[in-house]
Amino acid sequence: EFELVWHPSQAEPAQATASLKPIGIWDISILDAALKLSNGTAHWDQQHGLNISDMQFQTEHIDGSLSLATAADADGSWRITRVDATGNSDFTAMAAHFQLPVSHASGTIKTELHFDKTWSGQVDMTDAGWQQLLGSSKKAGEAYRITYAGNIELNETLPTIHLTDLTSEGQALLIRNGAVRINRKAFTLKLDDLHTPSFSGSLDINIPFDDTPWLLATKARYLNRNALPDALDHPDQLIDKSWLLVADIQRFDWNDAQMDGVHINLASAKNSVGLFEARKISTTQVTMTDVDARFSLPGNGKVDLRKLSAHVEKQFLTMSATLTPEVEGGMRWRGFAEISGNFGHLMTFGSLSKRFSDGDGHLLFSGQGIILRNQPWWQGIDGRLRLRADNGRILEGGTLTTLLAAFNLNELFKLLLGQRKDLTGPGMMYERLQMEAIMQNQDIQIRNVALRSSAFDLVGKGNMDIDKAEIDLYLIAQPLQNLDALLSKIPLLRDLLGGKSHSLMRKIYHMHGPFTDAKVEAVSAKDAGLDSPGIIDQLFNIPTEWFGSGEKKTAAEAAPVP
């Protein structure tokens, strides 16, 4: 319907009106957003503006009804004087499309928007339900809604809906302060005070409508792994959209691990490397500080850990591995780990022995294990182990005293070598300790172990059980050349200790029992399974191969060959 009153002598109509009612569906576009209109009426009056009544509209995610009125200002510009809009959305479809961190989304979301001098509205989620949204859950029928107020910035370049004072009513998600900005470029959600049983902090989400990445930024006082679903609903419906994540978390609980001072920076771009830093990570197994990791996410919950470094009490840990989620919790890692630091502390820390003191230790493990699970550190371990320690001490007592007594060297050191630093300090000082082993759970199969002190070389092989704290080891001991030379000059003492055949020079011992107080017994080569020709000589080549001959070269020997 059109009505026009226009006197031919006038430059413009005296009165003009138009009333429109859709027949079928109108397909229109507003700010590049597709919109379908049906039913209702639209009435335009030259003097009073535009009025829309009960117009039905449909977008990709909302079916609703719209009524609005406009009026002309004194300068001729138009302004909105009234808006009443309602809409219904399928929560399942919206969660899948926008990749919301929610599981088992269901039901309908009802939205209202009103304007009468001020903007206000609500999002009623009473009919919606979910099982996992930032650690919260809700059944359909439980009352929950989000209210808001705001304004529209109608500038010519970028009209923007600006909604503030977002607050919630209900038990599922506690929102105390938030804001939304919507224009043709992006949707921005800012929640400054959001609380669930698994999350407490702020959340900023920026979803641009072009090809630039989505941005999720959070500053959380507390975050629990339960805030994140194990899997998103309808992964086949997810859109291929790039994203950026920036997070600062004061306290982050992940299964059995507790983390403090966490910073995460991660992008979805292919081959991008993420950053993870933590001031402290504590589990029942270990406490790490100054954690710094570089990683990527290949998918299916896996983590490609390019490099991790951290302090573990008096040790420094370096690790590179692939981490895969385990059904029973925690992560299985496959790769290598290197630990360096105070060797005595490492042995005490691993509940292996309290008889070692000081020493510059280095440990390299290549294989697999399980972390972030409440269980002994060695459970699930499977791989190869190499260990080296320099310039440490083995303290007196327990197994050491028994071993030295078996060697008949306790008093011999003091009689022949005098007051030396390796003897006057606590226990016995060693120059080098080295071991190669295979580790499977609590069982360590020691393929070769060698120790060099100023008094003797010691080599051996056997087994250890960390869980039972037991050892079963065969050792061969041989005094070094300085002691050998002294013995050769004191025939009576030589004969008393070892006889003319110098049987003292190579003796085989069986060490078995608890770590702290194992029994040490002299055995024959046959009893030790070392009676094959040349096997003892082969074992005693190990210290020389690993540590060198131990002899100082003369100046002539050290001179370069012309």
Structure description:
By secondary structure, this protein is mainly beta. Among the domains are: 1-59, no CATH class; 60-254; 399-419 and 449-548, no CATH class. The chain has 9 helices and 35 strands. It has a 35-stranded mixed β-sheet that branches. The longest helix is centred in the C-terminal third of the chain and has 13 residues, at 535-547. The protein is rod-shaped.
Condensed summary:
The chain is mainly beta and 562 residues long.
Largest sheet: 35 strands, mixed
Helix content: 10-25%
| Arithmetic mean pLDDT | 79
Radius of gyration, in Å, reads 39 Å
Query: Any idea what the shape is?
Result: rod-shaped
N- to C-terminal distance: 113 Å
Tally the beta strands: 35
The proportion of residues in beta strands is over 45%
Count of runs of 4 or more consecutive helical residues: 9
User: Structural class of the helices, strands and pairings?
Assistant: mainly beta
